[in-house]
Write a structure and sequence with these properties.
- The protein is an alpha/beta fold and 496 residues long.
- It folds into two domains: 231 residues, Rossmann fold (3-Layer(aba) Sandwich); 246 residues, Rossmann fold (3-Layer(aba) Sandwich), CATH 3.40.50.2000.
- The chain is built from 19 helices and 15 strands.
- The strands form two sheets. An eight-stranded mixed sheet has the order 9-8-12-11-10-13-14-15, with helices on both faces. Strands 1-3-2-4-5-6-7 form a seven-stranded mixed sheet, with helices on both faces.
- Strand 8 and strand 9 form a beta hairpin.
- Helix 2 runs parallel beside helix 19 and helix 9 runs parallel beside helix 12.
- It is globular, with a radius of gyration of 23 Å.
Length: 496
């Protein structure tokens, strides 16, 4: 059931050093590695999660593995498998519970499905493990397998939790009560924010912020003609001008008024290169706040005169402004069964809007067969945005915001704890206090669109914030420290 992912990434630290701004970052990382890597010699470090496509964990993993290897760590990536829809349905609800949503009931059937899938993967994975290997389990889906590894084989184990809530509710208590049994076996836990650490991990937890790779296809700088070429190849733009590369095998698809999906330049072009654009790109997840954002934008469009408040230039801006809501083809992500349902709700809201508002909203599904092509499309869409929104009702961290900030885009984010780790209100963007309410979204968007000078300052601040704290160099350095300390702890307890 377990599958090792073949990581083929040719980027080296020397490639980063070709960029003047990263030279010091690479030097500092090598100094950290010199202190920690010798203690990991002779061990493989396994990173295990639930999917190789879609979501922040899968996107971070290839470059993380590559840099580990160059620094001298024998790092591997494996993904669990499951034929049981009961398993992924339950783990999606468990994910929601940790965010304070979902159904706060865990049945015996849920427990049996969870344990059965984790046991199947454990039996498969144990054939790959050596006694000294370190196992890092990401998120709740394979957490049970990690506990079985520790109890049965004794390998050093770390649980990396990418989600959380800075509050205690019936839902979070239900989730943590279920997970505590498995968590107690682990040597260490890694969380994104101190607020996320449950009591049973007290004294054996560290904080590591997720991070982006600035040279990845999703984040690298793009010249104007490259942006145009990507949009053209994805059928997000029509042009009679020649472009260098071939059209993508799978285009971006756009929701039509009749509920069908056609290439995104139909029924007309979105105007990504010419119009003010508000953009949110996320998984199709009800916790991402797509619905109130869509309704808030429609509210602005219905009453442009009131929002313009006598400013004719701003009125024109609101008239030609468009909203882009984009996410992956929901059928391509195995561990997110709610994607189709969430997208269906967005489709219904869109189809109920009057035609003149529908024309200013583009609901896009992005191809997922090629990670590179998907990343390039996201990169181009973010660079075409005037404001990037991440309206998550709950958010473990929110790399989509980090990516936009790196591109010097001002961001409008919710007050979710993960987003507050990144954005300081009025410095890198704006924090929305009531993300569920369309009227407050409309007011916040209108305010940001009305102040181009402030947007520019916030965008510059945002890029600097990411450079200082949320690039991959910082993340790798923290991981080396955690892995070294975990091995020392296990050896100190008598493990070999």
């Amino acid at each position: 059931m377990i599958e090792e992912v073949d990581v083929r990434d040719n980027v080296t630290l020397a490639d980063y050093e070709q960029y003047a701004q990263f030279t010091v970052k690479v030097r500092e990382l090598k100094q950290v590695a010199a202190a920690h890597v010798p203690h990991l010699t002779g061990r493989r470090v396994w990173m295990v999660n639930s999917t190789s496509r879609g979501g922040g964990v899968a996107e971070m993993m290839p470059r993380l593995i590559t840099i580990f290897r160059e620094l001298g760590v024998d790092a591997r990536w494996a993904v669990i498998g499951a034929d049981s829809q009961d398993f992924f349905g339950f783990t999606k609800n468990l994910h929601n519970l940790i965010h304070g949503a979902g159904t706060a009931t865990i049945t015996e059937r849920d427990r049996e499905a969870y344990v059965a899938v984790n046991r199947e993967n454990f039996e498969s994975f144990r054939k790959l493990l050596a006694p000294n290997d370190v196992v890092v389990i990401h998120d709740p889906q394979p957490m049970g397998m990690g506990a079985m590894i520790k109890k049965t084989l004794g390998n050093p184990t770390v649980w990396r939790c990418h989600i959380g809530l800075d509050d205690h509710t019936e839902e979070t208590r239900t989730a943590w009560y279920f997970l505590e049994h498995f968590a107690n076996a682990y040597d260490h836990g890694v969380f994104t924010a101190p607020e996320y650490i449950p009591s049973f991990f007290a004294g054996k937890a560290s904080i590591i912020h997720p991070a982006i790779d600035p040279t990845d296809h999703k984040n690298r700088s793009l010249a104007v003609h490259k942006i145009s070429g990507i949009l053209h190849n994805a059928e997000l733009l029509s042009t009679v001008q020649p472009v260098l590369t071939e059209a993508f095998e799978d285009p971006a698809l756009r929701l039509q008024p009749d509920g069908s999906y056609l290439p995104a330049n139909q029924p007309e072009q979105i105007g990504l290169l010419y119009r003010p654009i508000i953009t949110q790109i996320s998984r199709w997840d009800k916790l991402k706040g797509f619905q109130p954002l869509l309704e808030g934008f429609a509210r602005m469009k219905r009453d442009i005169t009131t929002y313009a408040n006598g400013d004719e230039r701003h009125k024109r801006r609101l008239e030609i402004m468009r909203l882009v809501l984009a996410g992956p083809d929901p059928g391509s992500i195995q561990d997110d069964p709610e994607g189709l349902e969430t997208l269906g709700q967005i489709e219904a809201t869109y189809r109920a809007l009057p035609p003149e508002i529908q024309r200013d909203i583009a609901v896009l599904t992005l191809p997922m067969k090629s990670r590179k092509i998907n990343a390039l499309i996201v990169n181009a869409l973010q660079r075409c945005a005037t404001v990037v929104v991440q309206n998550s009702l709950q958010e473990g961290f929110g790399l989509t915001a980090t990516e936009a900030m790196w591109k010097a885009k001002p961001v409008l984010v919710s007050k979710a704890c993960g987003l507050r780790q990144q954005v300081r209100d009025g410095l890198e963007g704006q924090i929305l206090r009531r993300p569920k309410h369309p009227e407050f979204l409309a007011l916040a968007l209108n305010s940001m669109m009305q102040k181009p000078w402030q947007r520019g300052e916030e965008g510059r601040n945002a890029q600097r914030r990411v450079f200082d704290a949320f690039l991959i160099f910082t993340q790798v350095a923290r991981w080396l420290e955690v892995l070294h300390n975990t091995v020392l702890k296990v050896n100190g307890n008598g493990a070999k």
